[in-house]
Specification:
Layout (H helix, E strand, L loop, with lengths): L1 H17 L8 H16 L6 H8 L3 E2 L1 H9 L6 H7 L10 E5 L2 E5 L21 H22 L14 E6 L6 E8 L12 E7 L9 H22 L6 H15 L7 H4 L29 H4 L1 H10 L3 H9 L5 H10 L5 H11 L28 E3 L4 E8 L2 E9 L12 E8 L10 E9 L7 E2 L5 E5 L6 E6 L2 E3 L3 E3 L3 E2 L6 E4 L7 E7 L5 E8 L1 E4 L2 E6 L12 E8 L3 E10 L2
Length: about 575
């Protein structure tokens, strides 16, 4: 046991001499963070991240935590190292069984005893062996898919072993599905380091977002790919984020029906989380002891984007490139081979991330985008054709979203005027691993010069930054069209119950309707579902009631109807007898 502990510490010391820590903090902050890491291992941290996790979210994988502990080992006190000893020591369990490519270690009594769950997520007594059968089944299934079908290289076994070791333990106290651990000194002496590994998984997947067998499936896909990454392609000290992006995406590749990654992109109530609340955090961000621990996992959506926009092979090629260069450069090289680049792909990805939830277009963008939340945006900027500026700051390799309402009169607001979305992105590779935020100012005007760009809506815009080569602004300007048919028109309130707005063919599921009187006073606004008015005829239906739920009087009315990418306008008449 002590020999194995010493080997772990040798790995830790080597990592410390080579790895990028990513922290710049004072002594008190450092002490607090180190104690937080220890308490996360013990499952006793009750504030910040862990309280959030305990109520709604599972931390998925202990790899980020293991890496952060390894990188900071020399900073822990002797007492903290003692508390971490079980974490960095290979477990000794009561039994083991060889199943296919794997040797599965487990207990048949005590707190680590595994069990299957019934339909109510209650442990079924005397199912330890059946649970181990399932472990063998799904890990071998994952081996066949990731190695034989996708083409990744099999991970190395431990010295003198002919099978890959899996340890089944109680991990749910720390809200973990599993952990992949690097073993012994690295197999090489320079970065990227290669490691033999073992995997620890939870013993029942109780109290997790995906309980029971569903949790086991995604854990097998996730952790086994970590074993592949660390054992055959290599780990750069600065790139733990990309290990988690890849492994979380891989869950959905192997077991698409589980959708465990949804917990990292939205709350149980459907509000945004992870990348959808923190697009301004660097693409390279990872921090096991931070409240934003879910961000790297949530960026499995990068994998969904790459897979649909290019191919799954982009990830395999990226991992092959990681043998020579860090993840960002490896991604850039892989994308260059298909005529793109990381910069181009990242900017397109920011557009995809705006087209989710009610804005989703599942043909053009994410296939599961209707199940994703809307991305968080800054407060809407009202532009009334008078020079206007706004400012903010973001990290390198990140973005921020600003809706802008183009107002025609003082009576209009962001809620009743056509909006454009301004997406500001910083693509400064040189600062990709810093925590620094970089400031910008965005100017809008009706009169521009050669330093401005003119949008299709006539507005001139300019992004003011000291290093323009590292920045990009993208503006999605809704097109104003009139090919909406309103019927019946005129609308006789006595004879009809619903006024219908027939849309051109669309995949949108929600449309926003604004109704104005002839004096341009808004009398109604709301989001309506896009329904089939008649076969193959999409549109929305409105009950002709204003915002007080009263039927509208006779008169001429104007409407503005917006979907994700278009704004329609027109008029209709109402006759109330």
């Amino acid at each position: 046991m002590m020999k194995k502990l010493i080997e772990y510490i040798q790995v830790i010391l080597l990592l410390l001499s080579q790895c990028h820590s990513g922290y710049a903090e004072n002594g008190d902050d450092q002490k607090e963070r180190l104690e937080t890491l220890v308490r996360l291992v013990e499952g006793t941290h009750e504030s910040g991240m862990q309280s959030t996790l305990a109520s709604e979210i599972s931390a998925k994988c202990g790899l980020l935590l293991a890496i952060e502990i390894q990188q900071n080992w020399q900073l822990f006190t002797d007492e903290q190292k003692r508390r971490l000893q079980s974490f960095v020591t290979i477990p000794v369990l009561q039994k083991n069984r060889v199943i296919g490519h794997f040797r599965v270690h487990y207990d048949t009594t005590g707190s680590n005893e595994p069990a299957l769950l019934d339909g109510d997520s209650v442990r079924i007594p005397n199912t330890a062996e059946a649970f181990i059968d399932s472990v063998g089944k799904y890990f071998n299934e994952v081996w066949d898919y990731e190695i034989d079908s996708l083409g990744y290289e099999a991970p190395p076994f431990e010295v003198a072993e002919s099978f890959y070791n899996i340890y089944v333990e109680e991990l749910s106290q720390r809200l973990l599905y599993g952990e992949t651990f690097p073993l012994q000194p690295p197999m090489n002496t320079t970065q990227p380091f290669l490691y033999r590994t073992h995997i620890r998984i939870d013993n029942d997947f109780l109290r997790l977002y995906s309980p029971g067998i569903s949790g086991l499936k995604v854990t097998a896909a996730h952790e086994f790919h970590h074993a592949i990454q660390l054992g055959r392609y290599g780990y750069w000290g600065s790139d733990p984020y990309f290990l988690e992006i890849t492994s979380t995406w891989m869950e959905d590749v192997v077991y698409d029906a589980v959708n465990d990654y949804y917990q990292y992109i939205k709350t149980p109530s459907g509000f945004p989380r992870g990348h959808f609340t923190h697009p301004d955090l660097s693409f390279t961000f990872s921090c096991a002891s931070c409240a934003e621990v879910d961000v790297p996992y949530s960026r499995a959506i990068w994998g969904k984007f790459i897979e649909k926009r290019f191919s799954r092979d982009m990830f395999l090629q990226t991992w092959k490139n990681i043998r020579q260069v860090r993840a960002l450069q490896a991604l850039d090289q892989a994308l260059f081979s298909v005529g793109s680049s990381f910069r181009e792909a990242f900017l397109e990805w920011t557009i995809w991330n705006f087209n989710t939830g009610p804005n989703s277009d599942t043909i053009k963008y994410y296939a599961e985008g209707k199940n994703y939340p809307r991305i968080d945006t800054n407060a809407c900027i009202e532009y009334m054709h008078v020079d206007r500026s706004f400012a903010d700051s973001i990290q390198a390799i990140s973005s921020v979203y600003f809706p802008v309402g183009i107002l025609a009169s003082p009576s209009q607001t962001c809620q009743n005027s056509p909006q454009m979305m301004v997406i500001i992105s910083n693509l400064n590779f040189a600062e990709a691993y810093s925590n620094q935020r970089f400031s910008f100012r965005y100017d809008m005007s009706d009169v521009g010069n050669e330093t401005f760009k003119q949008l299709v809506n006539g507005v001139y815009v300019k992004l003011n930054v000291p290093d323009p080569a590292n920045w990009t602004s993208q503006e999605t300007v809704p097109s104003i069209v009139t090919d909406v048919v309103v019927y019946p028109n005129p609308f006789f309130l006595k004879e009809n119950k619903l006024l219908k707005f027939r849309l051109p063919n669309t995949t949108q599921q929600i449309a926003s309707l604004y109704i104005f009187s002839s004096s341009l006073d808004r009398i109604y606004s709301g989001d309506l579902p896009v329904i089939e008015l008649k076969p193959l005829e999409p549109g929305v239906a409105w009950n002709a009631r204003d915002e007080t739920n009263a039927l509208i009087p006779s008169g001429i009315y104007f409407f503005v109807l917006t979907t994700n990418d278009k704004t329609y306008k027109g008029k209709f008449s109402v006759i109330r007898e």
